[in-house]
Amino acid sequence: MDQNQIEGNSAVLAVCGRKKNDKNPVVFYPDRMTFNGETILYSDVEVINIYASSTEYNFIFENYSGFIKIKLRDGRKLKWKVGGNALFGIGKVKVKKEYFAAMYEACLATFVKTRAASYLNDIRLGGTVTIAHLSINAHEITGKSGLKTITLPFSELGGAELSGGYVRINRIGKHLAAFNTSTTNQDNAICLLFIVNSLVAGNAKEAAVAPAETPAE
Question: What pLDDT digit, counting tens, does each position of 159-172 carry?
Fold first, then answer.
């Protein structure tokens, strides 16, 4: 990246710390971030794992932890972690959740979206990508649903949402999710949120403009 490109992308989008007055926060720019003291291009992020968990014991003790782990194309690994405890509601759980939520939103808006766009480009060029237990092309998703492997066209899917550490891919008219994929231990599962919603929206748009079939005489 030359100096003109750097200057043209110097606006700070977000600054995310793990604690008050963090001396080494993650700083997000339009095309890159400073992460644990290193400057990382979003396009160099290859693998993403995101996790957050809150456990409460009889309304007395609460524990919270969250982390963002990434692996770069050159093999380097970086991790950003927060955590806290509260006893009888007194502690750092609330503020730690706020720190993690800010980091989470910044990641979604930047390198998660960039990684998802790379997958979408491969799909739109006619390829099939595999994320966790799901294989996705421009027309359908194949993967494990319960004990069965099923294939569903995007015309039967209602989109994806985040729910309890999972990306939930919904089926139109069904109460149960078609697929659930953990964002913790399934590499790049978080990217499914953008990939599935983009392909579902594209399928709906194509269906809306498709010419009606002429009834047979």
Answer: 999 887 889 999 99
Model pLDDT, residue 209: 65
Apex CA 185: angle with CA 62 and CA 132, to 5°?
Answer: 145
Q: What is the mean pLDDT of residues 68-92?
A: 91
Per DSSP, the residues of 142-190 read: EEEETTEEEEEEGGGEEEEEEETTEEEEEETT-SSEEEEEETTTSTTGG
> Strand pairing of 14-16 and 26-28?
antiparallel
Task: For domain 12-124, say whether CATH 2.30.29 is its number.
Answer: yes
Q: Predicted confidence band at 58 (pLDDT cuts at 50, 70, 90)?
A: confident
Give the CATH fold of the 129-209 domain.
PH-domain like (2.30.29)
